Every structure is written in C-alpha cells, then in structure tokens.
Amino acid sequence: MKSKGGKENDGTTKSRVVKAPSLALALTPIGAMAVFMGVGAIWLELPAEPMLILAAVVAAVIAYMLGHGYDEMLQTIAEKIAGIMPALLILIVVGMLIGSWMIGGTIPMLVYFGLKIVSPQFLYLTALLVTAITSVCTGTSWGSAGTIGVAFMGVALGMDGVNPAIVAGAVVSGAYFGDKLSPLSGDTNLAAAITHVDVFTHMRHLLWTTLPSLIVAAIVMFIAGRGVDATGTGGIDKVAEMNGALSRAFTWNIVMLLIPLLIILVGSVWKKPTIPVMLLSSAVAMFNAVVIQHFSVTNAFTSIVGGFDTTMLGKGFDLGPAAADITKLLDRGGMQSMMSTLLIAFCALSFAGVLSASGALNKIVMSLLKISKSTGSLIVITLLTGILTISTTCNGQVSLLLPGELLRPAYIKRGLHPCNLGRSIEDSGTIFEPILPWTAAGAYMAATLGVPTLSYMPWATLCWTGVIFATIWGYTGIGIRRLTPKEQKDMLAELDREKPVAVSA
C-alpha cells in the first residue's frame, strides 16, 4: 500500500494509479453513513460512534480502489483533527467553566432570580425569556428544559385557561436560543470548531438569525398570552420550592457571583483569547466556591473535573420537595462531561478525513458550486444539507460536523467567511432538531414536557424561523460577512495544505 510519500509499508517503493471519483462514487460513503446511522443508531439504537467508523471504512475502501494508500488516509485524518484541536480544547475548558460556575454559585443565582420574575399574566412570554436566560447561563438546552422548563409546565398545569402546548413551545424556543448563544454550549463550540471560526465571532454572527427569531417568538407569546384568564396557584408552588432550595444551598453575593460572567462578556467584547478568558473566569468562580459558598478546595477541583454534585452540599442537607429538580439542574459540568462530544467529533472527522483523501469531498464541493450560482442558493443548499443530515442521522453533533466539513471549501472559494456556514448549519441542525418527532431531541422534549412534538412545534417559532431569516439574508446580502482578499488568500492556502499530497502515476 502506498503511503503519502510514495513508500510502501514494507519499505519498497511502488506507484499506484490515482483516479478521480465520479459524483456517484463520491456520494456513496455519505449514503452509507445515512444508512448506518438510520438503521444502526436510530432503528436499532446502537451508539453513533461505531456507525461513523463503519462509514469511514466504506470511504476507505473506495479511496483504496481509487489508488490512495493507508498512510495517506491516516495523515489526512490527523490533519483534520489537528485543524480543530484548539477548538476541541475549548470544549474541555467549557466543561471546567460549567463545573466552577455551578459550585461557585453563579449559575444557581441566575436561575434563582430568573424564576423570581414568573408572572401568571405573562406566563408564555416569561417561560420563553427565563428558559432562554437559563440556557445561556448553563449552555444546555436539555438541562434547561428538564428543570426550568418542567417548572413552567407545572405552573401551566396548575392554572386554568393556560395552553400547555404554547408553554412547551416557549420552553423549547428559549432552551435552544441559549444552546446557540452560550459560550458554554458544546454544540456552539463544535460548530465554531468545524468551521475554524473563533467561538465569540461565531456567536456574534448567530445573532443575525437568532435574535430576530427570538423577537418573533416573544411577539407570538405576548399575543397568545393576552386575554388568558389564568387562575390557580398549584404550579407557582413548584417554582417557590425550587427557589427555596436554591437559597438554602447557596449564598447570594451578587457582586462576586457576577464577576465570572462579566469576565466572559468583557473578554468577548474585547476579542481576547477564549481559553485564557475562560480559565480566569473559572478561577474566580472557584474562589467564590471556597470563600463565599464554603465548599472545600477538594470539592472545587473535583467540580471542574467531574462536575458539580449536590452531595457536595454536605450530609444531612435537605433540598426539600424540589430535591429531584434541583439535582437535575445542578449536577452537571466538569471536563469529563465533554468527552462524549470529543469522541463523536473524532469519529466524524475520521470519516471526513478519508472522504477528503479520496478526492470525494472536493468532487462534491465542485458539484455544489456548479448548482449554487449565488450566495443565496449556497445558503439554501447549506440549510437543506443540515436539515437532511439531522433528519437522517438524528444526531446533533453529526449534523454540524459533516455539513461543516463538506461545505467550508465552497464558502471560502466564493469569498464568504466561514462564519456564514457556521450560522447556517446551526440554523438547520442544532435548532431544527427538537421540532422533528423522530429525533432524540424531539422525543426528549415531548417526554420531558408532556406535550407531543407536533403539538408544540407550531409554537416553537424560534426553531423554524431561523431558516427563514437565513434564506432572506442569503438572497439580500444582509448579515452576510465576506472575506477580505487577504483573508481569502490565507484560507485558500490553508485548504491547499489540507489536501492530500498527490501520488504519482
């Protein structure tokens, strides 16, 4: 087998004829991936990682048939992983940040005051905004829906005249607003990583579609809530129980507990390096944990590695009737919590690396460029690719990794900044997933909130209006960032370095 340098594994030197793949052959590994994920991961409920490896094997067989050697494929995989390694390191630091903010009291304090503003007269709007705030602070859509969201559903069920489907739609919209616009979100960091864009730059660009979608959702919730005659207080008791437990567990030193959040915000505005900013924020949060919350130093360090655990509150500490909800909300974070995301990223990049080594990736990109004659059509193709990927794989990370790796060269060659790509794959992957009943997110939200996916889908307006705004901006040029000549030259050079070394015939 011929290596990248033309040398066989046994030390001899031979030549292999390298052939370019046809479009049908180039698409075969992607079709195989869709089948493996659909049958294996969805129908048989097998882990997604082995399915991606099987797809990589199919891609490797095709690459070998085209004349590419094992060492060449391995080198391309290594280069793909190396290209996003800095961003993968950010994911690990994000886990540390969440753990430190939990034990330091920053996240519990934000949740506490968020729940304080619950108003029966504006329940739909309040559910949207408070869940959004919680999700931004925690970086988890599922966690926010499973805790704050469940509390709001309890409020809805405890009041007459309130439509649970609207509340569920508000919760889902708010939860995924935060999932897209939180520096603590694994999906946000992953989308930034695969497009080679700084995470704060990525988040700022997401505002072009996500903020208008939130405004639309807020208007819908405000109008839907007008005239609702909400009576009964059963649900309010649940919120009071959660707040009571939080106030007993933590000390609210507002100034000190806000400093970790302010460090992140200032670092983002001043465009400082992400990892040092997050490490500084984590250090301050750990200081708060020891000095203000009176946790031990051991617990503080344990929290940033394995995540916060409510058992750290001490033996005999009683969280009261809300113990289950508080535990579900607070028991999270730590560097270890990001390992599953890293694993699936490595598997997906292995598939993408072999696809690139075979020339299939370049063939697909060239075919897409022929179809898409304008920026708007390229954006639409990206959105459709993302929706198709999440619909067939039902895996949020894969729906970011594969379209991002597939389409990044097309954006650069068109003079479009990859942050446009990152925004589009989030609009059609991350945020679209919970309104599809057969995906894991759709099933989770339906089961957790007690409302069928198709019932809350019309009210989860933030999840589907992003695609509409992305299409409008694509065709009008509004909110589209273009590369400067120097940026495009540098990125094209980076693409050239990523290409496999040609093998002589």
Provide an overview of this structure.
With 505 residues, the protein is mainly α. The chain has a domain at 86-339. The protein contains 23 helices and no strands. The chain has helices spanning 23-43, 48-65, 70-104, 106-116, 123-138, 141-157, 164-180, 186-194, 199-225, 234-249, 254-269, 274-291, 297-306, 323-330, 339-357, 360-371, 375-393, 396-413, 418-430, 440-449, 453-456, 461-476, 485-498. Helix 6 runs antiparallel to helix 7 and helix 8 crosses helix 9. The two termini are 14 Å apart. Mean pLDDT is 84; it is low at 1-13 and 501-505. GO terms for molecular function: antiporter activity. Its main location: membrane. The chain crosses the membrane at residues 21-44, 50-67, 88-115, 121-143, 206-228, 249-270, 338-357, 378-398, 459-480. Residues 174-478 form the Na+/H+ antiporter NhaC-like C-terminal domain. This is Na+/H+ antiporter NhaC.
Q: Keyphrases for this structure?
A:
single chain; 505 residues; mainly alpha
Task: Report the portion of residues in β strands.
Answer: under 5%
N-to-C SSE series? HHHHHHHHHHHHHHHHHHHHHHH
Largest sheet: none
Unreliable residue runs: 1-13, 501-505
Radius of gyration: 24 Å
Helix-and-strand structural type: mainly alpha
Question: What's the quick description here?
Answer:
The protein has 505 residues and is mainly α. The chain has a domain at 86-339.
